[in-house]
Amino acid sequence: MNTEQTTDLINKPIRVGVLGYGGLGQAAARLLAPKREMLWIAAADQKGYAYAPEGLNSKQCEAIYKSRGSLGYLESGGSSSDRSIAELIAKAGNNVDGYFLALPNLPNTFMASVAKQFIESGWQGVLVDAIKRTSAVEQLLAMKDELQAAGITYMTGCGATPGLLTAAAALAAQSYAEIHSVNITFGVGIANWEAYRATIREDIAHLPGYDVAKAQAMTDAEVEALLDTTDGLLKLENMEHADDIMLELAGICPRDRVKVGGVVDTRNPKKPLSTNLQITGRTFEGKISTHTFTLGDETSMAANVCGPAFGYLKAGVMLHKKGLHGLFTSAEIMPQFVR
Ligand code: NAD
User: Fold this and answer.
1) Same domain for 321 and 237
2) Active site residue 180
3) 242 touches ligand 1 (CB under 6 Å)
4) Predicted local confidence at residue 339, as pLDDT
């Protein structure tokens, strides 16, 4: 991007909506507050939405959400609704350039159904998700032509993993002629699981004996009882994670060479291990080597998901302006830093 475009964005920032106002949605709004190239103007939760063309205040929104359970109670710009996404899309219309979908993917078809809602509404712009499961990305892939025809640029798998780490794998792969393995191991520490209910339920769905439907149906008390048996830890191996299909689609390696696992501590903000990516391959000279990319332990899940999500939203806006619509993944596009 040239200097002229950057100045344009500061004069006329990208107007952003955030769907889902839980752990990640709230962090997203906080992260955007000091940015000059993006303005947060719309948000929805399960029971309501907020829309303010001049910009929403993240502190006020968080206070209302925490005290009353929905943005719908916001004095200025709030509306209660059990069809919050549909109503917000209709109300904000093309004033929103792009949405970050910080929604639970429960059931596993939910994100695809939201994409369908956008297509049917006639809205045009950029959508970014931080979706995790391979089968969820496959549903969006099947909608690629519809998204394109609707004038939507949809960036999928743009959180941390998939997202930041998948993109790092795509970059690191350039040293090799052949990729032998991609191993992603994440460490997440959160002070309490209630701050990220969907994330934790979706992680539980990967444990032996569980699936998405079972995890979705668990009451909060059942989640707590399960976490009590593991001292608050979730140890995850060989997860169904879309990093695999995204790296395969980008032509980097077959999906069975990609492995994702990790440990989530739901009772301690300190990471139980350092999140890292190891990519092993053979160079054109025949040397076998491994690149390792390790995230700083002080960086939170929220920082590593929301930062990339908006970097991809900015990249998506550039693609959209050039008439490039359809479905893109974090393994094929470079995110752009949001100032
Ligand atoms: P959360 O449970 O804290 O919050 C979910 C929010 O969505 C709530 O505000 C809720 O009211 C709202 N919501 C639920 N159903 C809705 C509906 N029908 N309409 C409007 N709003 C609705 O969620 P979270 O823990 O922040 O996780 C959000 C998503 O991010 C999850 O799908 C999770 O898997 C994903 N995630 C991805 C990564 C990554 O690296 N790719 C990392 C962490 C989380």
Assistant:
1) no
2) no
3) no
4) 97
Q: Is 66 a catalytic residue?
A: no
Whether residues 154 and 16 share a domain: the answer is: yes
Are residue 240 and residue 265 in the same domain, yes or no? yes
In a domain, 335, yes or no: no
Q: pLDDT tens, 113-163? A: 999 999 999 999 999 999 999 999 999 999 999 999 999 999 999 999 999
CATH code where residue 87 lies: 3.40.50.720
Q: pLDDT tens digits for 2-54?
A: 666 666 888 899 999 999 999 999 999 999 999 999 999 999 999 999 999 99
- Residues 143 and 243 placed together within one structural domain of the fold: no
316 CB under 6 A from ligand 1?
A: no
Minimal-distance CA residue to ligand 1 atom 31: 104
Quick check: CB of 158 below 6 Å from ligand 1?
no
Q: Are residues 174 and 155 in the same domain?
A: no
132 tagged catalytic: yes
Q: Is the CB of 159 under 6 A from ligand 1?
A: yes
pLDDT tens string 42-93? 999 999 999 999 999 999 999 999 999 999 999 999 999 999 999 999 999 9
114 alpha carbon – ligand 1 mean position (Å) = 13
**Residue 162 in contact with ligand 1 by CB distance below 6 A:** yes
Pairing of strands 48-51, 78-80: antiparallel
Q: Specify the pTM.
A: 0.97
Q: What is the DSSP string of 23-59?
A: HHHHHHHHHHTT-SSEEEEEEEETTEEEE-TT---HH
Q: Does residue 15 lie in a domain region?
A: yes
> Do the domain assignments include residue 336?
no
Residue 227 counted as domain residue: yes
Q: Where are the alpha helices (DSSP H) in the chain?
A: 3-11, 23-32, 58-68, 84-92, 110-121, 134-141, 144-150, 164-172, 197-204, 212-217, 220-229, 243-249, 301-321
Same domain, 184 and 284: yes
Residues 257 and 129 in one domain: no
- Same domain, residue pair 112 and 203: no
Range of the domain at 107: 3-161+302-329
Catalytic member of 132, 241, 271, 314: 132
- Give Cα separations from 146 to 24, 114, 116, 203, 322 (angstroms): 28, 13, 9, 30, 18
